[in-house]
Amino acid sequence: MKILLVEDDPSLQEILEEALTDERYEVDVASDGIEGQMMMQSGIYDMILLDVMLPGIDGFTLLGKLRKQHSDVPVICITARDAVKDRIHGLDLGADDYLIKPFSVSELLARIRVQSRRKTGNDQGQIVVGDLTIRPDAADAFVDGKSLQLTTKEYDLLEFLARNQGRILTRDQILERVWGMDSDAMSSVIDVYVHYLRKKLADHKSHLTIDTKRGMGFVLRM
């Protein structure tokens, strides 16, 4: 799972990034609201940890803009603003959870797991789309209980498509999410890996399809 951490406190930023990485989450960090807005617009994140009191653009404004774009990515607000009216305002704007500083890292990790289960609709943290079951904890995918035997990049691509089932993902979004922002991978590599996934899904007689939307991107459909 790829998480965006928007936090301007360098010490807390370092602590949270290390803790999230230790839990095998992929983490990108933004240090102010302007940088956070640019990264949020990429649409490549599975969850956002959002400080409210940010330089540039405050967290509430970022959250409001995100929800106006009809994004349903889970957002956990992390802030020292503990007034009831602030918590209500954040939740009304579309925050999925609201955590008051100071907090324990273990509590934050527990809340991340809760939001992940809600997002996938599965209490075990699995992603289920039709006859496909993805187990992020094992980095494995199954069709009707049989492993697809995916490579690392095949798995990353299929998980990203499954988390966004029915939504068209652009080539830029896929390159950033699967190969990373600093990668030199070319757009054509996506076609190669989509071909691999289509073959493995077909070999396992899956009813799922990965459709190409010319000039737009790719979408996983049931």
The overall pLDDT, averaged over residues, is 89
Taking the alpha carbons of the first and last residues, their distance comes to 22 Å
Class of secondary structure makeup: alpha/beta
Rg over CA atoms: 18 Å
Low-confidence stretches: none
Main sheet overview: 5 strands, parallel
Question: What can you see in these coordinates?
Answer:
The chain folds into 2 domains: 2-119, Response regulator (Rossmann fold, 3-Layer(aba) Sandwich); 127-221, Winged helix-like DNA-binding domain superfamily/Winged helix DNA-binding domain (Arc Repressor Mutant, subunit A, Orthogonal Bundle). It is built from 8 helices and 11 strands. It has helices spanning 10-22, 33-40, 59-68, 84-93, 105-120, 152-163, 171-179, 188-203, and strands spanning 2-6, 26-30, 47-51, 75-79, 97-100, 127-129, 132-135, 140-143, 146-147, 209-213, 217-221. The strands form 3 sheets. Strands 2-1-3-4-5 form a 5-stranded parallel sheet, sandwiched between helices. Strands 6-7-8-9 form a 4-stranded antiparallel sheet, with helices on one face. α6 packs across α8. It is elongated and about 55 Å long. The model has no long low-confidence stretch (mean pLDDT 89).
